[in-house]
Design a protein that fits this description.
Blueprint (H helix, E strand, L loop, with lengths): L10 E6 H13 L3 H16 L4 E2 L10 E5 H13 L3 H15 L26 E2 L21 H10 L5 E4 L6 H9 L2 E6 L2 H13 L8 E5 L7 H6 L6 E6 L22 H16 L2 E11 L2 E3 L2 E3 L1 H10 L4 E9 L4 H17 L6 E8 L2
Parallel strand pairs: 4-12, 5-6, 5-8, 6-7, 8-9
Antiparallel strand pairs: 1-2, 1-3, 9-13, 10-11, 12-13
Helix pairs in contact: 1-4, 2-3, 3-4, 5-6, 6-7, 9-10
The structure holds S-adenosylmethionine.
Length: 366
């Protein structure tokens, strides 16, 4: 289960790399446990007094400095202090030295696996309970049917590296693109509704662009749009992550446009049309990369329709490997809160449970 990112988890100290290395080497040269402990203890006092600042995972690296999560670093020093033999202490010291040395990055992300304990923000559990929507910056939550920014953020942290390209074929209010700007990933969104796309482009442009990356929203039908041409206009041939957040069939009618997936006549036609979008967008996804589908179920004529699983099956039928089924709590908007009592009554009468979750299906392509 996830919590919101706590302050201490995000408190980083910056140390001079050469000085830190010198301290660790001096400690490693010690042969007496007592004097080794004295050195570590003195260093710990210095470290604990340093000012800590929040840090984003994608901050540009400084070769002369090493940014360490304060609490994780202090607990590593404590572990060395608690060692009962020089040999054990040396083992912990060597591990620490390795951790601050060369970074060992993930295959599809920038996570330094030598310091994996510090990435508290990056989720690895399949249940996401998010109490608060991130409303900072250009995220305004003006669009009914948007997703919370933490969803694309988490996906990008796990499945992209800095300056990778992300494609969102159901861009809506541009949440993915705004988050791209924050994380330093390039982003392309396709949105059918020109008014929504214009509004999204405006919001996107109002978000600072510290990494000077490209974000673009194209007006079009994601089932027929020419992805190759869109990519060519940015001088690229493929993207590294697909995020798809389609309508949950007709739960919200986004427009009257016949190409709008929320106007699909039946569930079957919705799933088939969604599969076409996946197939077309996948053609520009680099091999062995990830695609994520964010979708919920629906209730119709007294029956729970497992839209999510149907969409999941459609993607699996295309040869994609299912990597995870994440269950996320449904965010309570003001409108939903007002309807809650009514839904509870209906549930009691109708013998069903009220939707409180949606899915994030994560796949990897061959
Ligand atoms: C669930 S919303 C996506 C919301 C988005 N993730 C956000 O945070 O704002 C689905 C979007 O898909 C758009 N849409 C529906 N059918 C489409 C199609 N065939 N091509 C492109 N966009 C489509 C709708 O207009 C709607 O904005």
């Amino acid at each position: 289960m996830i919590q919101n990112h706590s302050e201490s988890e995000n408190a980083y100290i910056t140390l001079d790399r050469a000085a830190l290395k010198a301290v660790l080497e001096a400690c490693l040269a010690e042969t007496e446990l007592l004097s080794l402990r004295e050195r570590i203890s003195a260093y710990r006092t210095v470290v604990a007094s340093l000012p800590a600042v929040p840090q984003t995972l994608n901050a540009p690296p400084d070769p002369d400095a090493v940014a360490l999560q304060r609490d994780a670093f202090l607990s590593e020093l404590d572990q060395i202090l608690a060692a009962r033999t020089v040999r054990r202490a040396t083992y912990y010291l060597s591990r620490l030295e390795k951790g601050i040395g060369e970074a060992r990055r993930g295959a599809v992300n920038d996570i330094n696996l030598n310091r994996w304990k510090e990435y508290d923000e990056v989720l690895t559990d399949s249940l996401w309970v998010m109490d608060r929507r991130d409303t900072s910056g250009a995220h305004r939550a003006w669009y009914w049917g948007n997703f919370i920014p933490q969803i694309p953020r988490q996906l990008m942290l796990r499945y992209t590296k800095a300056e990778d390209w992300v494609l969102d074929p159901f861009a809506g209010s541009g949440t993915t693109m705004i988050e791209c700007r924050r994380l330093g990933r390039h982003g392309i969104g396709v949105e059918l509704n020109p008014d929504v796309a214009a509004h999204a482009a405006e919001a996107m442009a109002s978000e600072p662009n510290p990494f000077s990356i490209t974000t673009d929203i194209v007006v079009g039908d994601s089932a027929t749009v020419d992805y190759d041409a869109i990519l060519a206009s940015h001088a690229i041939k493929d993207v590294q992550l697909l995020i798809l957040h389609p309508p949950y069939h007709d739960i919200i009618q986004f427009s009257r446009h016949s190409a709008d997936l929320s106007n699909a006549a039946t569930v079957e036609s919705f799933v088939n049309r969604f599969a076409v979008v996946v197939e077309r967008a996948r053609a520009v996804l680099a091999p062995q990369r990830y695609l994520a589908v964010v979708i919920g179920d629906k209730y119709q004529d007294g029956e729970w329709i497992p839209l999510g699983f149907q969409a999941m099956q459609a993607v699996m039928a295309q040869g994609c490997t299912l990597k995870s089924i994440v269950v996320k709590n449904l965010h309570r908007t003001r409108a939903k809160r007002e309807q809650q009592a009514l839904w509870r009554y209906r549930a009691l009468v109708g013998g069903f449970y009220v939707f409180k979750h949606e899915y994030i299906f994560v796949f990897q392509t061959p």
